[in-house]
Structure formats: structure tokens, C-alpha cells
Write a structure and sequence with these properties.
single chain, alpha/beta, Rossmann fold, Hypothetical Protein, Haloacid Dehalogenase-like Hydrolase, Chain: A, domain 2, 2 domains, eight-stranded mixed sheet, six-stranded mixed sheet, 11 helices, 14 strands, 33% helix
Length: 272
């Protein structure tokens, strides 16, 4: 049985440590798509954070975004299969966030929102490498809590970036009674999504949209929030820079993000 689709995480997988796509990865994507295979993104990022990647890799038509809360069709410029966080649970998350040292980030269908003052202190929340991207694409508001209270668009994901990464364990415990999907990402983030929403569920929905059995898909990732898609795909591949438990959960392990690991994984789409 051949594979027809490969789902790529972005940060730590498609992008190297300089937050760039290596030339060999660009070449591998083009080769796979020219062979009639589907290369898709399966990422925690918002659509607005993917614009440059769509330009660089125009053969990538679909993205599972906001950690599975939505799917974006690049060709039609359309978001669909959206799953927002229930209003009551979102209010509880933000009321708790007011009491701790965090930078909340809200992913909406058409925007990514943070508080303007937090943009000045990305290093405090361990997100300084993302400054060029954030300054380019983020929608900033004077008060993220007031914005959240009045927002009527579906909140697809809420990220809480902590000043002290160890504190996210305590935050996760404080939110444990909520019926939300919660997972660690980046160095300091706890991300919350609607019940049943994760990268694996998003991959399943996209496979259904394309008529591809999930067992004919490959998933590539490096972090805890990638585990659901690794468990969903027919072949799971961990990056060499992934934590040990991610590598253990995967079927294969490739080189790290700075030594061609993503390109190696993509070429497996053609060789398996």
C-alpha cells in the first residue's frame, strides 16, 4: 500500500532553527507534489502565520491549522471544519489567566490576536524567536481580556505563554476540570482547544475531504501536540530534535531540523 499524503508540523519540523525552510526541503515538497502526492501542513499556527510559507511552497493546497480546529484551502482562500472553544470554558480560561504571569494569544478563523504590551516583552514569555513573524502578522489589542470578553467570533485556540515554563504544569492542573483539549507546545505554552480537537482529528477530517484513507497518510512532528497526528497516520515520523518520548511513539526517526530531517521524511512519501 502506497502513501498519498504527508502532514507536516511547522515549527521544529518544516522550519529549521533559523525559522527557514531549507532548500532541500523545498525541493522535496516540489518533487512530492509533482508526483501527484499531497503535502499538507498540520500546525498549531493560525492561517495568517502561514502566508509566507504558502508563497514559498505554492503546491501546498491545504493546511490543518490551530492544532486541528480548522482547515484552510489555499486555492479557494476558504476556512472550513471550524471548531471553536465553548464560550463558558473560554471565559474561565481568561479569568484564570488574569491572575498569573502569562501572554494569552487567541487564534480566530481570520486573525491571531495578542495584547500590544505583550509584544514588547516576547523574550519574557520565551517567544523572542517569533518576533519578526509576530510583528508582521499579529493583530494587537490594548487589552486582551477585554477583547476576549467581547469577541463573538469562534475562538479556535487559546495559547497561554508563561514567563516561567514550569508554571504551565500548575496552570494545566487549575484547568483540569474543563472539557477542553490541553497540550504543551513551544517552551512555555499551554494551548487549549475545543473538546475532540487536535492535530490528529484535523488530519482525519482532511483525509476524509480528499478521499484518502488515513492509513495512506504520513505524519511528521517533534512535539507533544504532534502526538495525535502521529498516532492517526499510517506512518509516523519523529524529527531527530524531538523529545525521547516522541521518538519512542513514532515508527521512524529522521535527522533533526538543521540536518535535512524534514526532506528525508517527505521523500519517504515517494519511496514507501
Amino acid at each position: 500500500m502506497g502513501f498519498e499524503l504527508i502532514a507536516l508540523d511547522i515549527d521544529g519540523t518544516l522550519l529549521n532553527s533559523a525559522k527557514e525552510v531549507a532548500p532541500e526541503t523545498v525541493s522535496a515538497v516540489r518533487k512530492a507534489c509533482a508526483s501527484g502526492k499531497h503535502v499538507v501542513f498540520d500546525t498549531g499556527r493560525a492561517v495568517c502565520e502561514l502566508t509566507d510559507l504558502f508563497t514559498l511552497l505554492p503546491d501546498v493546497r491545504y493546511a490543518v491549522f490551530a492544532s486541528g480546529a480548522g482547515i484552510y484551502d489555499v486555492q479557494k482562500k476558504r476556512t472550513f471544519a471550524l471548531h471553536g472553544i465553548p464560550r463558558k470554558e473560554a471565559d474561565i480560561v481568561f479569568n484564570m489567566a488574569k491572575t498569573i504571569d502569562v501572554m494569552p494569544q487567541i487564534v480566530l478563523p481570520d486573525a491571531d490576536v495578542i495584547q500590544a504590551s505583550h509584544l514588547e516583552h516576547l523574550d519574557h514569555f520565551h517567544m523572542e524567536p517569533y518576533r519578526p513573524l509576530y510583528e508582521k502578522v499579529m493583530t494587537t489589542v490594548p487589552d486582551i481580556f477585554a477583547f476576549a470578553a467581547s469577541c463573538r467570533e469562534p475562538m479556535l485556540k487559546i495559547n497561554l505563554y508563561h514567563a516561567d515554563p514550569t508554571e504551565r504544569i500548575r496552570t494545566n492542573s487549575r484547568l483540569s476540570s474543563l472539557k477542553l483539549e490541553r497540550v504543551y507546545s513551544e517552551i512555555s505554552s499551554l494551548e487549549s482547544s475545543a473538546p475532540g480537537v487536535d492535530k490528529g482529528a484535523g488530519l482525519l477530517r482532511l483525509c476524509g475531504e480528499l478521499g484518502i484513507p488515513p492509513e495512506q497518510s504520513i505524519a511528521v512532528g517533534d512535539a507533544d501536540n504532534d502526538l495525535p497526528m502521529l498516532q492517526t497516520a499510517g506512518l509516523s515520523i519523529a524529527m531527530g530534535n524531538a523529545a525521547t518520548h516522541i521518538k519512542t511513539a513514532a515508527d521512524r526517526v529522521v535527522s533533526d531540523l538543521d540536518h535535512g530531517g524534514c526532506a528525508q521524511a517527505i521523500l519517504m512519501l515517494l519511496s514507501e
